[in-house]
Structure formats: C-alpha cells, structure tokens
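re: ur question from yesterday

yeah so i grabbed the chain u mentioned. its 237 aa long if i counted rite. heres the sequnce exactly as i have it in my notes:
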Amino acid sequence: MSASGYGQFCPVAMASEVLATRWTILILRELLCGSRRFNELRRGLPRISPALLSKRLGELEELGLINRRIDVRSGSPGYELTEAGEELRPVIMSLGRWGHRWLESQLSLRNLDPSLLMWDMRRNLNPAPLPSRRITVQFLYHDVTRGQAKWWLIVDKADVENPVDLCMLDPGNEVDLYVVTDLRTMTAIWMGIETVQSALASGRLDLVGAPELQTTMQAWLGLSPFADEPKRVPAGG
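ran it thru and got these structure tokens back, copy pasting raw so excuse formatting
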C-alpha cells in the first residue's frame, strides 16, 4: 500500500487501499469468472493497456491475492487466486448485485461494447438445453461498425475442456441460428432488463434458423450472473 493512502488503521480503509485502485476490482472479477491467462484477462477488460494489466497483476501477486504459474505444456504464464483472493468472491458478487439492483439501467446501457458482451455471453452460455451435435450461432449487429458487427458462438458438448468457442472471423461452419439485432437490445437481454421474447415481440430481435434453438434461446443464452436480481428504485428516484 502506498504512503499516500488513507492513513487509517480501520480495516475498511486498509482494504480500500488495496482494492480501490483503478481496474483492480475488475481484474479480480475476471479471475473469479474463470479467466486465467493474460489474453483472457484482456478480452474481459478490452480497455486496459497491457502495461497496466501487468502492473496490477504484479501488485495482486505481491499482496498475496493471486499466484503466477507457468503452464508446463505451453510454457506460458497463468494466474490463479489464492485463498485470500477467493475469499473476495462474495464481496465482489455483492457489489455486482448492488449495482444491478440500485443503479439506473439506462446508465449501464450507455456503456456498450460488442467484444465484452460476446465474451461474457461465451463464458456464461449454458450448453445443457442444446442438442449434442456441434452448434454454430451467428450474431449480426446492424448498428455496429463493420469490424465488430459479426460474431460466431460455437458450442460442442463433446469438447469437455472448451465446449464454447467465440470467433470474430467466419469459422466456415454451417450456421444453425442467425441472431439479428442491435447491440443495445442484446445487452439489455444479457443484463436481464428484458427477455428474448419481449425483444422478438417488439421487432428489435430477429431469429432465423433451427426452431429448437429459437425456442430455448432464453435458457441457453449466456446471461449476466446478476440478470435474475430484481431492479429497485432508490427513494426519491
């Protein structure tokens, strides 16, 4: 902790000096969500610079919240939470639940990012309702710049280690379902602000392809872990 900290012995102040630095909470969020490699962390935090991410990871390692491990097969480094880091799970999840419950939804929907949305959908997708064969779903955002308008989610239950993959380039597979919408609508569905059915009814979402994938989309689509949290309005809001 820096000498320019709060200068208080209170555990809340001391913990804040560790956790309140820019990006630290979000790096811990990514690790708690299963990211282990540097590039995985970058995909979940697309706006952090590589230099700052390296610095924060070094600080977290020095504080004893993470360990750095070298993969014996690839030779590349990976990161894992220590007992102290894992103990922050309920703290960070509670912070997310509070933000979802009390903060104005429209504020969240100003911060639209297709790469972050698709990465979150990829790691939260539930393969259980999907057929056993390989499934390819293409997302087309008609309001996004060309380079980020098309995405492919590939689900293969036979691949135990990596059942869900995300591609920005056409993988060449036959597409089972096309999802055509705007980024704001898809983000609202992911956040639990609205549903697949309500977006279809309003004409802001169009599904083309296998009927069984269309009818089960709400069940298999990777939603925010806070999507089921009821929204509340602060007094006087």
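noticed a couple things. The chain has two domains: 11-87, 112-220. also The first helix runs from residue 11 to 19.
anyway ttyl
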